[in-house]
Design brief:
Elements (H helix, E strand, L loop, with lengths): L2 H6 L12 H11 L27 E6 L2 E2 L23 E4 L6 E2 L21 H9 L5 E2 L2 E4 L6 H18 L4 E5 L3 H16 L3 E6 L2 H7 L3 E4 L14 H17 L5 E4 L22 H26 L8
Length: 319
């Protein structure tokens, strides 16, 4: 069948499907000269913890990979380039009763199409407060948690995830919403979701990288086919953010078994060509790729120095 036939039948363009981030990131790093492909976490068995009581009676926690704003660490707002200096490498928590200035300049989101100015796209704390106020959820847990985006799955599984599980248990959490941003963020929070479920805490991942989350293997995924950095809704679109949260809560309530994926019906834009841009070496010149390689190498060095300063060792070298 020809492209003309596709158009006459009302078919979507061939590229208008969820971005294959595992494949895309491998091709990207090979194009930058890194010839050792990253090995993503992958499980066959997936734990599943049904809600123990109605959501309207449940205490719900929020997990994020966004970072607290650090004024001394360079640009972190709208238009900011990738900023490895703003990364964090220890689990942190915050009071859910107050607002927080979190940013996502430290991770590899889609800077061409995402908007770093509206935290409602990646940190739906105010929306969850409203859900608690109207009785949609029983209550919001007293703390939210920030999970470091370590490439070391071992460190995530042996250090960060157990700390988050213990804290959620201490807070009496019944269920958790996990909102990742970059590709590695999606792996990190998928691993954490699995550990929470094994501990009897129901979870739903709100993600924009479907292939990564499903490859790891999680109980529940609400997939939004949006650019990375917008897993909780469109920027500047409160209705989109509210609809995304409500759909995530429905997935949390109604998923019949592990590996339940629900795709949001919301579309980012009528033109889906944004899916071709993220980390796509085929769309860049040799000169631009060389510039990006230099940036990536500088960021790698900065991140390594920060990890060693924070943890006393480079956990990236430990799978």
């Amino acid at each position: 069948m020809s492209a003309a036939d596709d158009n006459s039948l009302g078919f979507a363009p061939e590229f208008d499907r969820p971005v294959a981030y595992i494949q895309r990131t491998r091709a990207w790093y090979l194009a930058l000269g890194y010839d050792t492909p990253y090995v993503w976490a992958h499980y066959l068995d997936v734990p599943f913890a049904p809600l123990k009581k109605p959501l309207a009676q449940s205490r719900v926690a929020l997990l994020t990979t966004a970072a607290p704003y650090q004024p001394d660490k360079g640009e972190q707002g709208p238009g900011a380039p990738y900023n490895a200096a703003a990364k964090f490498y220890r689990v942190y928590d915050g009071d859910t009763a107050i607002d927080h200035d979190l940013r996502i300049a430290h991770v590899g989101i889609d800077r061409k199409h995402a908007d770093l100015g509206d935290s409602g796209c990646w940190f739906p704390l105010p929306a969850l407060r409203r859900a608690a106020a109207v009785g949609r959820i029983g209550e919001l847990a007293p703390r939210f948690f920030g999970a470091p985006t370590n490439r070391s799955q071992r460190h995530t599984l042996e250090v960060d995830a157990p700390e988050i599980v213990a804290a959620c248990r201490a807070d009496g959490v019944d269920a958790a919403l996990l909102v990742p941003n970059c590709p590695i963020c999606h792996q990190t929070l998928s691993l954490v979701a699995r550990e929470l479920e094994a501990a009897g805490i129901s979870t739903v991942v709100l993600g924009a990288a479907r292939d990564i989350v499903e490859y790891v293997g999680v109980p529940r995924l609400l997939f939004s086919d949006f650019p990375l950095g917008n897993a909780a809704g469109r920027p500047g679109d409160a209705a989109s953010q509210e609809a995304t949260l409500e759909l995530a809560l429905k997935v949390l309530e109604r998923a019949p078994a592990a590996r339940t994926t629900v795709q949001s019906p919301l579309r980012w834009a009528a033109d889906a060509s944004w899916k071709l841009d993220y980390s796509n070496p085929a769309r860049l010149s040799a000169e631009e790729l060389e510039r990006r390689r230099a940036e990536a190498e500088a960021a790698r060095v900065t991140a390594r120095e920060l990890r060693v300063a924070t943890l006393g060792r480079d956990v990236e070298s430990v799978r």
